[in-house]
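Each record in this resource describes a single protein on a pair of labelled lines. The shape at a given residue is found from the number at the same position. The record below illustrates this layout:

***
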Amino acid sequence: MTKVVYKSYNPNDNLLLPPCLGDYLPQNHPSRVVSAIIDRLDISEIEAGYKGGGTSSYNPRMLLKVIVYAYLNNVYSGRHMERLLVENIAYMWLSGMQAPDFRTINIFRSKRLAGVFDKLFTQVVLLLSDEGLVSLKVQYIDGTKIESVANKYTFVWKGSTEKNKAKLEANVKTVLEAAERALAIESAEDQQELTAEEMAARADRILNKMDEDGISDKKLRKAVEKVKSENAPKMKEYEDKLDTLGDRNSYSKTDPDATFMRMKEDAMNNGQTKPGYNVQISTENQFITNYGIFWRPTDQGTLIPYITSFSDRYGFQSDEICADSGYGSEQNYAHLFGIGVTPYVKYNMFHADDKRYRRKNPFLVHNLYYNAEENYYVCPMGQHIEHIGDERTKSDLGYVSTISKYRAQDCTGCPLRCMCYKGTARQRTIEVNHQNNAFRAEAKRLLTSEKGLYHRSMRPIEPEAVFGDIKFNHGFKRFRLKSNAKVSVEFGLVALAHNLRKYIALGAPGHSLAAGSCL
């Protein structure tokens, strides 16, 4: 039988020369690309945050490389990064054999990068643009909701807070006014709202008056003291909650920037609202070119500030925007057309308008004959539906629309009345938003053009595919940091990691992958 020969094995064997970690990494290793790209970035704003003095600090460029490479490999925990820095050759090479602990990593990520990471992300996208991978002339926009790390049972609702505040205010007014009448103190009965400070001040005035006059009404004194010691602080609590809420309908006590919204990825599958953020992204060639964090659960109200952030980021606006019907509103169309952007943006009835039941129904408003010169409609029986006036309506975003109203002369006895409209009114009344109809007509023309059909075919494989890759392939379904500023940094790292991952998959054109070799 042939003798088996094993290779020499001694895990404690000493090397003649100290090794170079770079020699153990392949020339096309992703860590080399991360290092090469971050070496080209201007990090002066991060460096400006260091005060100096005391002990030496870890190099911010090294920490940035480690964190970005960790996100590239689906590692989002500071403790996990700390462990990899002493176990994984790629991390050891990136850090130069330094081993910052998880506290240093987390402080750098949440505090040092807050407010400055946007510019780092922008620099990387501009590098991609220089290499011809993105043009920044088109944005495919979509949004998704990502759950906050906040406790899902620590919610504050605006409606409930306002209701309890009004109830408390009414009860306190009753107590104070009764006490003031009993003591013949002039009261501000015409006061509309009673703040916490005013409650305490009026209670003090009543108690002082009782002491001066020697009044020993225990029941009255106890009621007024309760206003000062319990009701006034509770009112201050309600006031603070409403200040935190602002225009929102809810927030979490453990992450006040998070708003309660329904999540598509509901682990409990019970449809409960959970604290989270509405994340918006723009993509081109599946590279993320812009991102934004919003508290509004719906996409419609985020579009204008979001595309404004794109122009703030790059100093110019893209020529074309493609988005789904969640963004199609009169306000958004008016803004996009107003700034010269071509909007390939659907509206909520875009597909329904092509259905037979809507195209063939002669009684629907958009199928009635309209005389634009004399401003009247004609019903299927030939009766004029005359213009009777306009009214202005304001949306919850503050946008003012003009609604034109039209009314027929008399529909009594019309044989088609049962098919035309329902109700007991003698004549049919219709409401029309001509401005919105004009925007929708132009949007439909753009969307059904050759270029519009191309953009519509690309949109599902642009932002939707990117979100799917981030959430399901790389497991990022929940933020780990709190507050809008820190969450923005966290998703910025996710977006940057996605771009670098795709860049590496394309072969990292334009970069020398041999950076860091000892040869």
